[in-house]
Sequence to fold (133 residues):
Amino acid sequence: MTPKTFTGRTVGGAIATIQCPSWCVTDHDYWEDTADDCFHQSDLLELDIPRDRARYRPTVVPALAAELRMHSTDQTPAGATLWVQFSEYKADGLELDLAGVDHLLKSLDDYRAGLAKLRGQLARIDSERRTNR
Fold:
């Protein structure tokens, strides 16, 4: 597979070519990026939330989304982050470093464990109500 490259103007007006990481899905031409000041972005990872069982309230999509972002020329750890968004509005997002992602993963693991426990309780209640009709 041929590596994806982008040739475009730099901030100073010169022309430069950069190589995108294999996971980059950004169309740098479309966004009219500058080669020395742009971001590579991964595919968006989204959490699929079901609608309310009575369908009264639609979910806000995406309810939780994440993508990897890396600056084209910043080689420091701060140049690569995970962008996590909690609604469709950018203001609800967080730019996380590795420690922040680890914290979020721990919180999600704890949440999942708690949700599984609640699901078990709901299943018992559901079963009791179906057999006691």
